[in-house]
Specification:
71 residues, mainly alpha, 82% helix, elongated
Length: 71
């Protein structure tokens, strides 16, 4: 998923996206363990998508805290 797509989501949407990506990553790990995963590159891509979503989520949360502290 592109960073621009993630930046358009709100905090709740990003939290949901992280949960979904973590579920997908778990499923891929189980497929790898049972030797059913053909493309192991998807593990890396999913891991990076999770990191990207968590980074943008942290940025949005920090931005929200800064706005509330400024009031």
């Amino acid at each position: 998923m592109k960073a621009a797509e993630l930046r358009q989501k709100d905090v709740a949407g990003l939290e949901n996206e992280v949960k979904e990506l973590q579920k997908a990553h778990f499923g891929l790990r189980m497929q790898k363990a049972t030797q059913q995963l053909n493309n192991t590159g998807t593990l890396r891509a999913t891991r990076r998508d999770i990191a990207r979503a968590k980074t943008i989520l942290a940025q949005k949360q920090a931005e929200a805290r800064a706005k509330s502290a400024a009031k």
